[in-house]
Amino acid sequence: MRLIFMGPPGAGKGTQAKLIAAQKGVPQISTGEILRQAVAAGTPMGMKAREFMESGGLVPDAVVIGIIEDRLKESDAAPGYILDGFPRTLEQARALDEMVLRMGHKLQCAINIEVDEGELVERLLDRARKEGRSDDTEPVIKKRLQTYKEQTEPLIGYYAKAGILKPVVGTGSMAEITDRILAVINRL
Ligand code: AMP
Fold first, then answer.
1. Is 59 in the pocket of ligand 1 (CB under 6 A)?
2. How many Å is the maximal CA-CA distance in the chain?
3. Counting runs of H as helices and runs of E as strands, what totals does the chain give?
4. What is the pLDDT of residue 126?
5. How many CB atoms lie under 10 A from the CB of residue 49?
6. How far is the CA of 59 from the centre of ligand 1 (A)?
7. Taking the CB of the first residue and of the last residue of the chain, which one, N or C, has fewer CB atoms within 10 A?
8. Which atom of ligand 1 is nearest to the CA of 84?
């Protein structure tokens, strides 16, 4: 099982990726989480990434592509994985295609969780209150949504063209969304 979970910030892709990865027994691989750990540990990579993350922009492609390249080689990713928050640019998507091809694998589908923009801001502000993430202040949230539109949204067309895009309605309860995603995955 090799899947990509896409969607705007606040769509709930992290939560769903975790739930479904646990159910399917594959790792959920989140570049955002790996980067936050690097920032907290104060590694050179973390120090480089911090400024981009706190401004709501993207960390340079070479950095995140390197992260994923290393992570996919780990043994727990051999049977499959759910990528959460990667790729976020066309360059990352192309690099991922090359990596997967080199490994003799295939991406099965790109689940795109769709949520209205108005609802996203509300959800992100709510998360900011609960989790205290430093990139969840209102101006940063707006910048993250803009970054998403400019750099990540084009991936919808990229994966549609590749014939692996699966849109999922991202409104409703968490359980409803999980069921919708499972319905798609179980048909693969
Ligand atoms: P996330 O937890 O997925 O919302 O990611 C938090 C932040 O980490 C993003 O706003 C970006 O600054 C950075 N980040 C995570 N994944 C990527 C990626 N694939 N490409 C570039 N930056 C990323």
1. yes
2. 43
3. 9, 5
4. 86
5. 23
6. 7
7. C
8. 3
pLDDT, residue 118, reads 85
d(C-alpha 96, C-alpha 61), whole Å = 11
Rounded to 10 degrees, what is the CA torsion of 126, 128, 131, 135? 150
Query: What is the C-alpha separation between 82 and 104, in angstroms, rounded?
Result: 17
Would you say the CB of residue 88 lies under 6 angstroms from ligand 1? yes
What are the structural domains of the chain? 2-29+79-186 (3.40.50.300)
Q: How many CB atoms lie within 10 A of CB 78?
A: 12
pLDDT at 36: 96
Residue type, 104: G
The residues carrying an active-site annotation are 13, 88, 127, 133, 144
Q: Which two tokens stand for residue 60?
A: 């340079």
Question: pLDDT averaged over consecutive 10-residue blocks of the chain (188 residues)?
Answer: 96 96 97 97 96 95 97 97 98 98 96 92 85 80 94 98 98 95 96
Centre of ligand 1 to C-alpha 13, Å, is 13
Alpha carbon 107 to chain centroid, angstroms? 15
Cβ within 8 Å of residue 178, ≥6 positions away = 16, 19, 20
